[in-house]
Amino acid sequence: AIAGFFLIYLLARAVSHTLALPRAVAEFRRRRNQEKASLALRDAWRLLQEGRYGHAMRCAEKVRPDHPGAGMLALAGWRAAHALRDAERSAEWAVRVREYDTSGLRPARLMTEAEFALEDRRFDDARDALQQFATIEGRHIAAMRLSVRAEQGLGNWREVARLVRQLEKHQALTAAQSA
């Protein structure tokens, strides 16, 4: 009787483990994909900071669009493509980043657009992006610094003076810099 009970118990455990196997495999694959994506995100941003833009773009392309970190990787890919001065790929990455606006990346996209517009001397586009950013996030020191550059490029000196006073008030500029 004890041997029979033990045999039935082992058989029940084997059946239970067999039935749970697909769920365990799916969970393992999900965890592995998430770890790969997290590693790709870390590597892409590290490579971007090292100035290895092509490698950073390749890392950003590795992750599926449905991964939670895919928006940040798209932002890294966009920055890398822009740094390489590859207009076509930069436009592709910009479209990808826009897809993640609803997941909280809109402010980051707008700041990036403003930075890129300033680099390309498109001051009107930079001001538009910064105004959109301000309606979402309010006043930020980094956005105000970019606004100073945009307004200087447009020759709007009254706005430059106002922004400089605000930056000095928030101790984001020294007295010498504001002068």
Summarize the topology.
Elements: H1 2-50, H2 53-61, H3 70-83, H4 87-98, H5 106-119, H6 123-137, H7 141-154, H8 157-169, H9 175-178
Tell me about this structure:
It is a single chain. The chain is built from 9 helices and no strands. The protein has helices at about 1-50, 55-60, 70-85, 85-100, 105-120, 125-135, 140-155, 155-170, 175-179. The termini are far apart. Helix 2 (about 55-60) runs antiparallel to helix 3 (about 70-85), helix 3 runs antiparallel to helix 4 (about 85-100) and helix 6 (about 125-135) runs antiparallel to helix 7. The longest helix has about 50 residues, at about 1-50. The chain is elongated and about 95 Å long. With about 180 residues, the protein is mainly α.
Short characterization:
The protein is an all-alpha fold and 179 residues long. It has 9 helices and no strands. It is 80% helix and 0% strand.
Separation of the first and last Cα atoms = 95 Å
The biggest sheet, with number of strands, parallel, antiparallel or mixed sense and barrel status, is:
none
Low-confidence stretches: none
Mean pLDDT: 91
C-alpha Rg (nearest Å): 25 Å
Helix count?
9
Question: What structural class do you assign from the helix and strand content?
Answer: mainly alpha
Written as H for each helix and E for each strand, in order along the chain, the element string is: HHHHHHHHH
Described by the principal axes of the CA atoms, the overall outline is elongated
User: How many beta-strand segments?
Assistant: 0
Helix content: over 70%
Strand content: under 5%
